[in-house]
Amino acid sequence: MVTSDGETRGSSSSDPALVLTNVSKSFPGVRALAEVDFECQAGEVHALVGENGSGKSTLIKIAAGVLIPDSGSVLIEGRSLSRGGIRQARGLGLMTAYQDTSLVPELTVADNIALSFDAVGEKRPGDLNSLLAAYQLPFKPSATVSSLGPGARQLLEVARAMCHRPRVLLLDEPTAALDMKLAAHLEELVRTARGEGTAIVYVSHRLEEVRRLADRLTVLRDGVIRGTYSSRDWNVDDIVELMVGAKTELEFPQRGNQLSEKPRLEVRSLAGSDFGPVSLSVRGGEIVGIAGAEGNGQRALLRGLIGIGQSDGDIAVDGGVLTRNNPSTALHAGISFQSGDRAAESVYGPLPVMDNLTIQSGAANGPGGLAVLSRLKGAFSRAAAQFGIVAASPFQPISALSGGNQQKIVLARPTLRTPKVLVVDEPTQGVDARARMDIYRMLTDAADEGIAVLVNSSDSSELAGLCDRVYVMSRGEISAELVGPTTETEIVRSFVSAAGIAERPDTKLTGPARFTRSLGQLTSYVPVIVLLLLSALLAIYTGAHSPVFWTGPNLANLMLLSLPLAFVALGQQFTLLSGGFDISVGATMSLTVVLASMTLPDLSAGSLLLTVPLLLLAAVAVGAVNALLIGPLKVNPIVATIATLGIIQGIAIVLRPQPGGMIAPDLGTAFSLGLGSIPAPFAILVVLTIALEIWLYRTRGGLALRAVGFNAQSSDRIGRRSVLVRSASLIVCAVGAVAGGICLASLTGIGTNDVGAGYSLPCFAAVFLGGAVLTGGRGSFVGAVLGAVFLSLIDNATPLLNIPDGAKQALYGAILVIAVAAYAGVERVRSGRGRTGKRHPLSSKQRLKA
User: Fold this and answer.
1) Which of 270, 430, 735, 753 could form a cystine bridge with 313, CB 3.0-4.6 A?
2) Between β-strands 452-456 and 275-283, what pairing exists: parallel, antiparallel or unpaired?
3) Residue-wise burial string across 11-20, b where 16 or more C-beta atoms lie within 10 A, e elsewhere
4) Statement: 16-244 belongs to CATH 1.10.1200.10
5) Half-sphere exposure (CA, 13 Å, Cβ side) for 580?
6) What is the percent of the chain with per-residue pLDDT over 70, rounded to a whole number?
7) Mean pLDDT of all residues in the chain?
8) How far is the C-alpha of 577 from the C-alpha of 779, rounded, in Å?
9) Is residue 52 a contact partner of residue 432, using CB atoms and an 8 Å limit?
10) pLDDT in tens, 409-454
11) Are 526 and 823 in contact, with CB atoms under 8 Å apart?
């Protein structure tokens, strides 16, 4: 069809691709949706608009299978979305691009795309370079997502959803993090998808953008549909009035013109790894903007003002130069910085609204570092009344508030402390029209009180309406200064023309920078290299001081002694990769030895047929109990696995109160068999470890395990249920503990109820030495086994070197601390946090990766 402005729209079919009928959803104390009917046809862009908290996100999540409605139904291409959740919705052809993305930052672009296809059982795209080129994405498949700018990540989120060729596409604030140039590019992608027959539900607070794209528009207010309109029947003012329920002034607030004579903020030759040198100034009572195409150093500059990433230059507030600049000293000097990444850097989701508001207030909260409740409540009441903050209670978690109210809380913090300089990154990103006006008033009121205000925004019209002056940035430096009044067109023209400046001749990496990059690429292999080096040095030193060390029997004994710890470390590595851990492994090993002492008097077929299934059943039972407690029951993993440890240890004591029960003598003999000095079980361990390493980095299951460990929420959003992955990991961990227990039984030969207790802490030491972290996603099976072998080597070498047990334990701790510190240092190099010195300018495409 053709609209009134002459633009050709995609043709809509008679049967809607997405239908929500009579959908209602309530949360404790809140009615989010009330009997909502909504539909979107194939080849149509149907915009969904409303204030923050109006129910848009709830509707999107119900359509995507994230939430189950209290009543009503969802049809995708005529098929019902039952309780199958996200995976079923995606399988029916509905894809979602989230505002805060469902990407796993620690993985590469290629891995993130593969993860999305794996989750729904679709074949991965063959040529990723061509795929990215088709969407004109300015980065390579090998790029790590965390290295991309916010705009580039948002484009990847949308392109990844589109490359599934969905029948229905849900776009939640897709341009909130984009500058005008990238937003225009995304609009073209949306038009292309619509022309291909995709039904697109488009949620956005940028109403002019909605006006350009939408075939139809539905307004939500207080969880109720207030009307659906065609693109010819509305204008922005009318829609805003429907959104808020009353006429709303959309003009920028009037400003006073009382500017201080001297700058309150002076920046001289400030530089960091991603920006500089930059010099600028802001006077009291002045609002100064920072503009530029996405990825040209704007956010890095703002962080540099509080010492994050700064390597050179001076910052002065009211003439006083900041020394040893960091966020704390900057705050005390009068600089209040509010990040544009609200969820990750500005709010503490589980904490109450009142605590989030007053967290920077310092002495105003109470004397001697105390927080006086009456003062906190008074501060909240005043801020809520002044800035229109809507919250059910000051004790309500801030995560339960709408995005606009969260942003108001963040921007109200400086008013409780009265800073000298207010630095704000993306003040209105993702908020509705009325909240946007409230935030503009907050900023202008701050300026009228004599505060120097510095604002970075990807919305050029916002900068034109708010700012007295605008600095335009290109490639990390200021390329132009626009003195107001200025216009959106002039701002955009300035940074677009600046992007065409020729490369400077010093772009080539120097020797140290080249070394830094090479070292960063080796990060994942550092633990393995370090362990091999330490093991070799210890073996050489011990062999030089003890003639016994290099003998065949001693080496065979060393390998046999390492087996219990190695197998339990492999299992522990599984659950650590998934983002969990299991403290009960030592007790599981003890129970294994006890059960073997009761069912395995020999290696006859009858004994093996009884013992092997029994031990496997025990492993599954232990893992399942841990999974139940940690998963559906949401018990803290420490509490859950300590409780399981107690239960397992109690069962072992009941079954074998005193040491006893002979374990098959031939079991130890069987473990000793092998090729030369290499026992067969150790050879099996090596083969298994290599196979697991290949599985981890070359298969769908391994990718899913790492993704869940890195970011469980992102994995859930694409249909890979993190609770199932973590449950399976806990069961595998228990199986590893049982395997370690069998190895231990071959060494002890008798049932003992506490024989495995000494393996719990060395197990964690082994996997941490191998590069694992408690936060999940990192580590390797080869590293875990090498860590176990290294610890066993220490146990073997210390008696030969006449080192007492106390010194051996101290050696354990020292080696672990040194190794972890070394890994952390290399990780800082890899991520760029450790870089100093002169910044090397990058091309426009490279800047998008910064």
Assistant:
1) 270
2) unpaired
3) ebeeebbbbb
4) no
5) 37
6) 89
7) 85
8) 7
9) yes
10) 888 888 787 889 999 998 887 676 777 788 888 899 899 999 999 9
11) yes
Neighbours of 501 (CB within 10 A): 13
Question: How many CA atoms does the CB half-sphere of 631 hold within 13 Å?
Answer: 19
What are 137's two structure tokens?
């994405």
Furthest CA-CA distance within the chain: 95
Q: State the amino acid at position 247 in one-letter form.
A: K
Mean pLDDT of 676-701: 94
Q: Token digits for 524? A: 């994942």
- Name the DSSP class of 343: I
> The domain 263-498 is classified under which CATH number: 3.65.10.10, 3.30.390.60, 3.40.30.10, 3.40.50.300?
3.40.50.300
**What radius of gyration, in Å, describes the C-alpha atoms of the chain?**
31
Supply 645's token pair. Answer: 């440890």
Q: What's phi and psi for 842, nearest 5 deg?
A: -125, 160
Residue 48 φ/ψ, nearest 5 degrees: -125, 115
Strand locations in 12-114 (E): 16-27, 30-41, 45-50, 71-76, 79-80, 94-97
* Residue 792 near residue 766 (C-beta atoms within 8 A): no
Q: Domain segments of the chain: what residues?
A: 16-244, 263-498, 532-803, 809-837
Q: Which pair of structure tokens corresponds to residue 756?
A: 């495995």
Q: Are 695 and 632 in contact (CB under 8 A)?
A: no
Can you say whether the dihedral through the CA atoms of 328, 333, 337, 343 is positive or negative?
A: positive
DSSP H or E stretch at residue 477: strand 477-483
Helix/strand/coil percent split, the chain, to 5: 50, 15, 30
Look at residues 626, 650, 649, 647 and name the one whose alpha carbon lies nearest to residue 638: 626
**What is the C-alpha separation between 187 and 192, in angstroms, rounded?**
9
What are the tokens at 347?
A: 């709010």
User: What distance in Å separates the CA atoms of residue 757 and residue 567, rounded to the nearest whole number?
Assistant: 15
For residues 495 and 296, is the Cβ–Cβ distance under 8 A? yes
394: DSSP letter:
T
Residue the block writes with tokens 């006449």: 802
**For the residues 170-174, what does the mean pLDDT come to?**
91
CA 576/CA 775 separation, integer angstroms? 8
Query: pTM to 2 decimals?
Result: 0.78
- pLDDT tens digits, one per residue of 621-634: 999 999 999 999 99
- pLDDT-derived band of residue 514, with 50, 70 and 90 as boundaries? very low
Equal fold, 16-244 vs 532-803:
no
Query: Residue with structure tokens 């990496």?
Result: 509
The number of angstroms, rounded, from the C-alpha of 171 to the middle of its chain's C-alpha atoms is 20
Q: What's the confidence (pLDDT) of residue 829? A: 59
Pick the CATH number of 532-803 from 1.10.20, 1.10.1660, 1.10.3470, 1.10.287: 1.10.3470
Closest by Cα among 174, 150, 160, 146 to 710? 146
- Candidates 158, 101, 181, 210; CA nearest to 433 is 210
Q: How many CB atoms lie within 10 A of CB 385?
A: 9
Output the DSSP codes for 362-383.
Answer: GGGG-GGG---HHHHHHHHHHH
| Sequence-ordered strand ranges (E) for 726-778 | 750-751
Query: Using CA atoms, how far apart are residues 48 and 204, in angstroms rounded to an integer?
Result: 7
Q: How far apart are CA 723 and CA 849, in angstroms?
A: 32
Q: Distance (Å, rounded) from C-alpha 352 to C-alpha 359? A: 11
Amino acid at 671: F
In the sheet that holds 79-80, the strands lie side by side as 30-41, 16-27, 71-76, 79-80
Helix, strand or coil for residue 147? Answer: helix
To 5 degrees, how large is the angle CA 495–CA 498–CA 502? 155
